[in-house]
Amino acid sequence: MNRPDRRRVPEAPARIAAEHGPRGRLRRAGVVVASMWAHGAGRFALVTLGLWILVSLVSLFWTPRSLWETNGYAVWAKPSADHWLGTDGVGADVFSWLMAGSRTDLVIVALTVLVALAIGLLLVAAMTSRAAALAHGSVVLIDALISIPTVLIALMLAVPLGASVAVIVLACGFGYGLNLARVARPSAMLAARSMYVESARADGASAMRVFATHIVPNVMPTLVVQCSLSAGTAVLAEAGLTYLGVGVPSGVPSWGHSLSTSVRFINIYPLTVLWPGLLVTVVVVALNLFGDALREAADPLTNPRLRGDDGHRRR
Amino acid sequence: MGIVVDDLQVAIGSRPILHGVHLEVRDGQRVGLVGPSGSGKSMISRAIMGLLPPTAGCTGSIELNGRQLVGLPDAEMAALRGAAVGMVFQNPGTALNPLLTVGRQIALPLELHYELTADEREGRVRAMMRKVGLPDELYGRRPHELSGGQQQRVGIATALITSPRLIIADEPTTALDSMTQRQIVDLLVSLVDEAGAALLFITHDFSVLARATRYCYVLDAGRIVERGRTEALLEAPHTPQARTLVEAARRLTLHVDGTGAQETETEEGR
């Protein structure tokens, strides 16, 4: 009577999904990166972001020219062997400034995404709370706050903080965090009201535990894509806010700084504006593609290489 | 010891669901709770687990091994759930987190209630999987790769891994086909008997009930209308509500079999 209803288990060549522990996790990460690399968009994103990080690191020790070396006789110079991307209005090397700017932007993007993720997850936790007042209140709060433009928040923050990286990070992190929570809400609610959460509670799991084990993993695919979009927008916001004078303070290299110092002369010296503009565009595109590629590659539903069964019994 | 529910009244908002329910399940007993949909069966199990919706009010007495559960703070209740009481759910397809592997799923109650190393945990989970008849290679699989019967075996393994003294099975076979139903019921019964635990088996299906329990309560519209030995109750139900349920089960069996047999046990004869 007690015969197990055993199905024949197909012998899969690579049983990645079955492996637990750090080794399994490492191999899964390897498979995800390899899967991203296999597609053009993913490869472009990986290469661009890899270069960005590399250049940021190198710029800490070396740039072709010193940032503070200016040449009054060679302002707005065209690209040459001396100045690979030419010089700006004070005769400083555009390439060196862009190199140094990449590390500022990298820090801004990383911090913004972290802040956004923290705020987003906090709000998701509030929205999926079993306390009705908190759950409903947080939705109303998000809807109210989301209508405030990020730029306005940045301008208000700039009053006490002045022009600083913190203004960009806090304003963008706040705005994108609200967005994140709003976008993640449907999948979070679906998970929170599911039978497996009920079952986890019957196992004795606390609200915290349910959130960490059952809700966060379910909203992560949505959040990853949203985070990469936010990262792209953060690069744009850095450029915009720095141009407005409330972002990166003058004298600190950043792509927005390079843009804002040269954009007034766009009609006379278009090349000097073109370089930072092009860089920002390429990086934003790469960040957006990165999120899509990562979600595609890290989701067992879309990536058969992460499934143990090679997709035989896909539902 | 076991569970004694006395004069349990549950209301959601101003709408009463249960009107003074009394039932008890002693250690080593397997007791059924039958009733039509909406009679409040699941509300009883939720009240015992302390998982009533936030808007529900609950009065009366629920004593688990001599300890009063009504009015217990949620933190203390959470410590009992999964450790002193295990629960098997109706639909294993939705009661398992699609993102967790079988091994992780079964290990959850252990993670919550016991301090074990990862290896010890894995050992216990694999031993439990053997007990419920799950092949070892399913350890790293996810729920969607399993059949319905296997999924319910995971559910049973999760409920039993901490060796709770009371197991509540809330319609554990309703989502399964009749062959698998019987296997799952037999498995549950043998494991519960082996552990000497108490089983509260909630169902609306008399054919499953007869297989799983010796004693049962009939619930209708929030009241226990009849109680007694399952066999006797099946043969000669006293109250109209129980009679309706038994007759409905007979008619259904007759219809499904198409043989014109008169008894619910026709399925057993094969």
From TrEMBL, chain A:
- State the CDD domains in the record: TM_PBP2
Q: Which UniProt keywords apply?
A: Cell membrane, Membrane, Transmembrane, Transmembrane helix, Transport
Cite the SUPFAM superfamilies for this sequence.
Answer: MetI-like
From the UniProt record, which GO molecular function terms apply? dipeptide transmembrane transporter activity
Q: GO cellular-component terms in the record?
A: plasma membrane
Domain named ABC transmembrane type-1: residues: 102-291
| TM segment ranges | 44-62, 106-127, 139-159, 165-184, 268-290
Per the record, the domain of life is: Bacteria
Q: Which Pfam families match?
A: BPD_transp_1
Compartments, record wording: Cell membrane
PROSITE patterns, from UniProt?
ABC_TM1 (PS50928)
Q: How does it sit in the membrane?
A: Multi-pass membrane protein
Q: Which family does it belong to?
A: Belongs to the binding-protein-dependent transport system permease family.
What is the protein's given name? ABC transporter permease
Q: Which source organism does the UniProt entry give?
A: Bifidobacterium italicum
UniProtKB/TrEMBL annotation, chain B:
Does Cell membrane appear among the keywords?
A: yes
ABC transporter domain boundaries: 3-246
User: Which family does the record assign?
Assistant: Belongs to the ABC transporter superfamily.
Q: Which residues form a coiled coil?
A: none
Location of the protein in the cell? Cell membrane
Which CDD domains does the record associate with it?
ABC_NikE_OppD_transporters (cd03257)
Q: Which GO terms describe its cellular component?
A: plasma membrane
| Keywords noted in UniProt | ATP-binding, Cell inner membrane, Cell membrane, Membrane, Nucleotide-binding, Translocase, Transport
Query: Source species, please?
Result: Bifidobacterium italicum
Record carries keyword Transport: yes
Q: Name one GO molecular function term.
A: ATP hydrolysis activity
Q: How does it sit in the membrane?
A: Peripheral membrane protein
Looking up InterPro entries in the UniProt record yields: AAA+_ATPase, ABC_Ni/Peptide_Import, ABC_transporter-like_ATP-bd, ABC_transporter-like_CS, P-loop_NTPase
Protein name, as recorded: Diguanylate cyclase
